[in-house]
């Protein structure tokens, strides 16, 4: 088998990332060499490649589904949104500048060439490339500058399968309307549909799907049921909604054991929100996204995650009273964990010449006072640190990755992690812990030691972390679950036929509309 397929969506968060991961895993299990591809991603959840590049977290997960290490080719353009409708642009794994929404069209020619080159490279090296679209393919106001949806499909002559999230409602209209709003040449590439997250009896839905086929001339390749146990890494930090429990495949807590509560602060510009997933996988740990001081005060552990704008989110912490709640916790010896930008906020001072919100006079940035829970000073460097981390802490191995501009320039605290390659990392004082290392808690032995210390400080003497839990195995099991859903509920022979045969001959939806136009009653 050889070829490519684009999985597009009728909306954002329709499930494209998971469908791509499932297809990649299913093909890889059949012995086919397959790679994921997302031409342009907009997300603050990212991962580091082995060569020190940066790609979307979802593409790193899809790479794992394929049995591959993350590669910058899998996501050649990454937009990391900040404030004021501007985003940092990462091309081939490296930051190349900042752009506003209105200016982005000026980048199109250059980026279109990058995307085409990287896709061609993957198609040479792998039997199959499964591409993921971005947002909705029906954003026709952006079609002229599109390099990720129908623009990509048209340039590479790829068939497109549209995914819709029926759990949101309106999916039949979404499928018809999304197809109809495209111009005729783009419609010609839309081969059919996938209905995702369906609850209920498929027989009740079947007549609706047949009507969609009659009106569009396109089949539905399958209906994937809602899977309550499916909790793969979220691509977009918007998934971290306030009050929501962090999704983690959960075991059954032991009888008589105590539970730990974790309050993860939902920062306005949160990034790499997936850091707390490892904690949520523990059967006796409850993780909830919060934005109120009372929840921070009440939890056994408060987590301050990464952010795309350290100074802005630090100011927000102070405005909301969350800063006071964190300081009170530390003064009472109750645990606080800061990761990356969260770690920087816990420090004594921050000099940020990159963000520089309200801190620059005559081109010189002033230090901004942090929360002061760690006697550490941070200065932002022009070049971003992008590297994998392989070290140890508390006698246990720790693996993860770093993505940050902030650098520790002075520390009077004990390092928390250590690496033979990069030296001491992070800081700790009593019950306050900080690190630039993302993913450290996925190291099972280290996580168990850390949680035992949190439980001791919280007085949860009956709490025990699951000694059998392996987060990497949980993720592999999740990928296999998604592949099983795809194989069981999709018409895989037809999907294979699209990959090998390219876009099928299909009618335009506009022709159906013309034939069924309502009569003019003005006469």
From TrEMBL:
Residues 7-234 form the CobQ/CobB/MinD/ParA nucleotide binding domain. GO terms for biological process: cobalamin biosynthetic process. InterPro entries: Class_I_gatase-like, CobQ/CobB/MinD/ParA_Nub-bd_dom, CobQ_GATase1, CobQ_N, CobQ_synth, GATase_3, P-loop_NTPase. Pfam families: CbiA (PF01656), GATase_3 (PF07685). Pathway: Cofactor biosynthesis; adenosylcobalamin biosynthesis. Keywords: Cobalamin biosynthesis, Glutamine amidotransferase. It comes from the Bacteria. The active site is at residues 340, 438. One of its GO terms (molecular function) is catalytic activity. Residues 262-444 form the CobB/CobQ-like glutamine amidotransferase domain. The keyword tRNA-binding does not apply. HAMAP family: CobQ. Catalyzes amidations at positions B, D, E, and G on adenosylcobyrinic A,C-diamide. NH(2) groups are provided by glutamine, and one molecule of ATP is hydrogenolyzed for each amidation. Belongs to the CobB/CobQ family. CobQ subfamily. This is Cobyric acid synthase.
């Amino acid at each position: 088998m050889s070829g490519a397929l684009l999985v597009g969506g009728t909306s954002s968060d329709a499930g494209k990332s998971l469908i791509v991961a499932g297809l990649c895993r299913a093909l890889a299990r059949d012995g086919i060499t397959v790679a994921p591809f997302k031409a342009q991603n907009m997300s603050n959840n990212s991962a580091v490649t082995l060569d020190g590049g940066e790609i979307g977290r979802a593409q790193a997960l899809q790479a794992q589904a394929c049995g591959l290490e993350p590669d910058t080719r899998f996501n050649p353009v990454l937009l990391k949104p900040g404030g004021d409708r501007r985003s940092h642009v990462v091309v081939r794994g490296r930051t190349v500048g900042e752009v506003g929404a209105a200016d982005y069209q000026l980048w199109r020619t250059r980026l279109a060439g990058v995307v085409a080159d990287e896709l061609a490279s993957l198609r040479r090296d792998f039997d199959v490339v499964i591409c993921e679209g971005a947002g909705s393919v029906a954003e026709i106001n952006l079609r002229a500058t599109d390099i990720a949806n129908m623009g990509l499909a048209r340039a590479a002559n790829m068939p497109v399968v549209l995914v819709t999230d029926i759990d949101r409602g309106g999916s039949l209209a979404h499928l018809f309307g999304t197809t109809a709003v495209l111009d005729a040449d783009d419609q010609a590439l839309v081969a059919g549909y996938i209905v995702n997250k369906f609850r209920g009896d498929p027989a009740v839905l079947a007549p609706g799907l047949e009507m969609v086929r009659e009106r569009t001339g396109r089949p539905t390749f399958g209906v994937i049921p809602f899977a309550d146990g499916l909790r793969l890494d979220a691509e977009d930090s918007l998934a971290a909604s306030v009050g929501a429990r962090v999704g983690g495949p959960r075991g059954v807590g032991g009888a008589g054991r105590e539970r730990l509560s974790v309050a993860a602060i939902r920062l306005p510009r949160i990034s790499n929100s997936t850091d707390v997933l490892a904690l949520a996988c523990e059967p006796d740990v409850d993780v909830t996204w919060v934005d109120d001081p009372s929840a921070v005060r009440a939890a056994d552990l408060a987590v301050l995650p990464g952010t795309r704008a350290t100074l802005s989110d630090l100011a927000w912490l102070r405005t909301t009273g969350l800063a006071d709640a964190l300081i009170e916790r530390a003064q009472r010896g109750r645990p606080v964990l800061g990761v990356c930008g969260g770690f920087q906020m816990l420090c004594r001072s921050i000099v940020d010449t990159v963000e520089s919100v309200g801190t620059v006079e005559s081109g010189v940035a002033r230090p901004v006072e942090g929360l002061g829970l760690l006697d550490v000073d941070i200065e932002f460097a022009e070049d971003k640190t992008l590297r994998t981390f392989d070290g140890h802490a508390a006698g246990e191995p720790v693996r993860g990755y770093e993505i940050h501009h902030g650098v520790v320039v002075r520390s009077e605290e004990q390092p928390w992690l250590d690496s033979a390659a990069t030296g001491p990392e992070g800081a700790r004082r009593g019950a306050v812990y900080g690190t630039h290392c993302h993913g450290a808690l996925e190291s099972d032995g280290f996580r168990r030691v850390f949680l035992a210390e949190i439980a001791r400080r919280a007085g949860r003497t009956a709490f025990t972390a699951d000694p059998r839990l392996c987060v990497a195995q949980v993720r592999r099991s999740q990928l296999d679950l998604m592949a099983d859903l795809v194989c069981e509920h999709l018409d895989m022979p037809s999907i294979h036929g699209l990959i090998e045969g390219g876009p099928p001959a299909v009618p335009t939806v506009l022709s159906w509309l013309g034939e069924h136009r309502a009569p003019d009653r003005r006469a």
